Description:
4 strands; 2 helices; alpha+beta
Amino acid sequence: xxxxxxxxxxxxxxxxxxxxxxxxxxxxxxxxxxxxxxxxxxxxxxxxxxxxxxxxxxxxxxxxxxxxxxxxxxxxxxxxxxxxxxxxxxxxxxx
Length: 95
């Protein structure tokens, strides 16, 4: 039951991130260095603060296949909550 609820929250986060123009932003290593360092090195469950915006983030899950590595990040602001997925090919940059 809890697994289904968690999956539902993740899917809502994906849909919210994909459908909401107001939360859309360009994430780059230069603009968000702390979060990108966490994507590179921190385990699932890692919490941090985005220094540029003051929003809290949490790396919630990691998915890997033969072509790429993807991580789902929850980002929480004062009046916002959304999920953002970051993926990269081996040796590439997070996108």
